[in-house]
Here is the input.
Amino acid sequence: MDTATPQTPDLSDQTHNVDGVLLRECWYYALPSHALKRRSTVHRTLLGDAVLLGRDADGKAFALRDTCPHRGTLLSKGAFDGREVQCPYHGWRFRTDGQCTAIPSQLADQKPQAQDIRALAYRLVERDGNIWIYMGARKEGLPPVPSVPNVGVRFQLHESVIFDCNIDIAVSGLMDPAHGAFVHRSALWRAADSIHEKQKAFSPLPEDEGLGWRMDRHPASKNSKAYRLFLGGAPETEISYRIPATRIEHAQTKKYNYCGLTACTPITAERTEVHHVMYWDVPGASIMRPIVRVLTKRFLDQDRRAVMAMQDGLAFNPPTMLIQDADTQTRWYFRLKRELLAAQAEGRVPRNPLMPVMLRWRS
Ligand code: FES
Ligand SMILES: [Fe+2]
Here is the structure.
């Protein structure tokens, strides 16, 4: 574990820049609650699976595999009356828990009958204005669902951008502390000449919060002007990262709170949706939403262009390296990924191998 901080590249990890594996048995951000209207369904491709997401007549969200068990037709192209989904091809009907309730073409003495058929149902949790989906088969011992700190903040906005790359590349921006001054040049956010030495304490997340780490609470960087303007003072921030791809930032002044949640969801192995959700409790600041939305979009697009340039370079299969300490969190990401895969293969609970450590870099 990184108890010392040698200044040489850690070459042992250089082959782990990208492993490309899509983790299963994990919660992923599916969509913001407001995107799912009552009595309606939408299609999403998540980790290469066709998924129908819906909200029933009582307002409860659900998710089914979006391919009909009969001949594979997309159920989301059919009808939904708020109780049952009907396949558009031969009219088989399914409850929101996946149970088939009607096979119109079957005679009473023929097999199968409706009760013999189920469409696969996914677990969903709706929390903090977000819908999380469990992409896995396990029924119990599920990892915790990510949630924003319980500090009275309200959901303000959601933006998402699609990155045409694997999640391993898309997540880079979530844990890379050294690209800000180069990728996110902006008068409001960072000045390119503001790079200075930083030292931050990190610790593993407690088990009940999932597999990950946190940058412990600390005074916000001198160069994050946006926070000061917005929260009206010098905030303290804490940032947590949990596998597979959720980063939660909490900034707090004596009066106000801001929370930002960023989550990456693989569409396929080559496409990833990056979601960013913002919460705050600054009174009257909802008028800021349109401008914050524009800035957020620009910010996400800056990350998108940066990682696309990395992907284009990696296509040449170059040797790469992960340096100390600026790339340490990227190493942790792959390390925790490997631990999760090993735990799944061995049928055990994953163990967080990280230890508290101080990291130093310039940014
Ligand atoms: S394909 Fe869905 S009912 Fe036949
Ligand atoms: Fe970034």
User: Anything to note?
Assistant: The chain has two domains: 11-21+150-362, 37-122. The radius of gyration is 22 Å. Residues 11-21+150-362 form a domain with the Naphthalene 1,2-dioxygenase Alpha Subunit; Chain A, domain 1 fold (CATH 3.90.380.10). Residues 1-12 have pLDDT under 50 and may be disordered.
